[in-house]
Design the sequence.
């Protein structure tokens, strides 16, 4: 059964849809759905984090890094975002920055 999206989706619906797509290894589509969720609810830090993680899993470390930094600016105690940032920095060969992050 194909995953389909309803035109009346809320931001949460787009996020849930993106999570399902990501689970099906459909990263590009998941990125689009996460982006739509963020367009509708730009202050939702969970959506920002999930989009960053999706970018990281899709080997788009620069995009992931920027988003993880935004998450950490909003919640400096977000350990998962700090770990994601460190991984993105390692993928970008920014070893000194990654060392500082960890």
Sequence:
């Amino acid at each position: 059964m194909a995953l389909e999206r309803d035109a009346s989706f809320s931001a949460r619906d787009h996020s849930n849809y993106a999570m399902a797509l990501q689970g099906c290894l459909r990263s590009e589509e998941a990125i689009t759905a996460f982006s739509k969720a963020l367009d509708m609810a730009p202050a939702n830090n969970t959506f920002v984090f999930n989009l960053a993680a999706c970018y990281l899993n899709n080997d788009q470390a620069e995009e992931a890094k920027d988003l993880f930094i935004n998450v950490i600016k909003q919640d400096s105690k977000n350990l998962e975002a700090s770990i994601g940032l460190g991984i993105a920095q390692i993928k970008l060969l920014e070893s000194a920055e990654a060392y500082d992050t960890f």
Summary: The mean pLDDT is 86. Residues 72 and 78 are 6 Å apart (CA to CA).
